[in-house]
Design a protein that fits this description.
The chain is of the alpha+beta class. The protein contains 15 helices and 16 strands.
């Protein structure tokens, strides 16, 4: 990377690029792939207020490892100064580092391994509820409920609130472009109000959960302000509920439409950990956004302070310069150095839990339902933004 005077702006290529649209399944993946093919390594989008789009895989990885230039203080392409805060995602080092020191031990491999019996039991319970039915609405019957209930148990929350949690999740994460953002903002406020009540309860009656533990955290010797704890809970809510569900939907869409891969998973369950990594790579769905903190020439891109950039991880994880046959799903691909969980200091904190949830879902589902297919009467479409499948219906005999 070079960090000198900006390049001549008149040479900057521009396009209109909007990833907040509804498309047929894999439409956004094709959109990002075409963008990489036509505009490597970067291009300027004139959509809305304008932003940079980086498509080169190595460049994306490098940028995400440079929070001094590319800040997480905004993750909204159209708003460099959003009216909300997600902790620790929208913090930069050194404050971000202090939060990670609290959280990293809670989500390290050892405690996540100890959690496996609980995760597996929840997974089995959900699958057995519809296994004899012969069909399911995959997202609503399984993919959303599975990680959401695990998150609620980690946080010490009553499962009776599950349906409300799913409604908030829909408003925050799955309504791009439906209004001016009011619905999502109102849902975020509602989530924080909910956790405000939970904190009041934990101060009176502590429990063995993350909410109670967070009351003992100190930064520079001082207790963390409740507003920051609520911002942390909001991020945990969004990350814990949605990302695993979306990844599951793509994994099962693939297996429902690729008989040979599904049969191989059933006959060779020892392949499942490798298959999880390949699904993460091939169906990466998080296009990460960052805010420039100063004027810079980043590999020829004339960035100015305050401008937003989109780092196309979905394209980067299918970059032919990094992966052989990148558009083929190879269940035993090795090596597989994808960065679906991001890179740098903001790399996904919950990756160890996510991998276990994904692995156990594939194991337990295929023990009980080895042969399934898409319901031909239900169209599979994707929403935009942090894109994902809106609905996937499965049937089996």
């Amino acid at each position: 990377m070079t960090d000198t005077k900006p390049a001549i702006e008149s040479a900057v290529p521009t396009i209109e690029f909007d990833h907040n649209v509804t498309l047929p399944v894999l439409g956004h993946m094709r959109q990002f792939t075409e963008l990489q093919e036509q505009h490597r390594p970067w291009v300027r989008s004139t959509t809305g207020n304008g932003f940079w789009v980086f498509t080169d895989g190595a460049m994306v990885r490098e940028a995400l490892q440079n929070p001094e230039l590319f800040s997480s203080s905004s993750v909204d392409l159209q708003d460099p100064d959003p009216p909300y805060l997600w902790i620790p995602e929208m913090l930069d080092p050194p404050v971000h580092t202090k939060w990670r020191q609290f959280l990293a031990p809670e989500f390290a491999p050892k405690p996540m391994t100890e959690l496996e019996p609980q995760v597996r039991a929840r997974c089995v319970e959900l699958i057995e509820a519809f296994a004899d039915r012969g069909h399911c609405d995959f997202l609503n019957d399984f993919a959303y409920r599975y990680p959401t209930t695990i998150f609620m148990e980690l946080m010490g929350l009553p499962l009776e609130g599950l349906e409300q949690f799913l409604l908030w999740e829909e408003d925050i994460l799955h309504n791009p472009g439906v209004d001016d953002g009011t619905r999502a903002l109102n849902a975020m406020i509602a989530v924080q109000e909910y956790f405000k009540g939970i904190y009041a309860e934990r101060r009176k009656e502590p429990k063995d959960d993350l909410v109670t533990q967070s009351l003992s955290w100190r930064i520079d010797g001082e207790p963390i302000a409740e507003s920051d704890l609520l911002a942390w809970c909001l991020l945990m809510f969004m990350a814990g509920l949605d990302t695993v569900a979306i990844q599951l939907s793509y994994s099962f869409w693939h297996l429902a439409t690729h008989d040979a891969d599904r049969e191989r998973i059933v006959k060779e369950p020892e392949l499942i950990p490798s298959a999880v990594e390949e699904f993460l790579r091939a169906y990466s769905f998080v296009p990460t956004q960052r805010k420039a903190m100063r004027d810079a020439d980043f590999h020829g891109c004339p960035i100015k302070a305050g401008e937003m950039s989109l780092f196309a991880i979905p394209a980067a994880c299918r970059d032919p310069q990094l992966f052989e046959n990148p558009h083929d799903v190879i269940l035993d691909r090795a090596p597989n150095n994808h960065f679906a969980f991001g890179a740098g200091p903001h790399r996904c904190l919950g990756s160890h839990l996510a991998r276990r949830e994904l692995r156990m879902a594939l194991e337990e589902w295929h023990r009980r339902i080895p042969d399934y297919r898409l319901d031909p009467d239900v169209e599979v479409v994707e929403h935009g933004g942090m894109f994902g499948i809106d609905r996937i219906a499965l049937r089996w005999d």
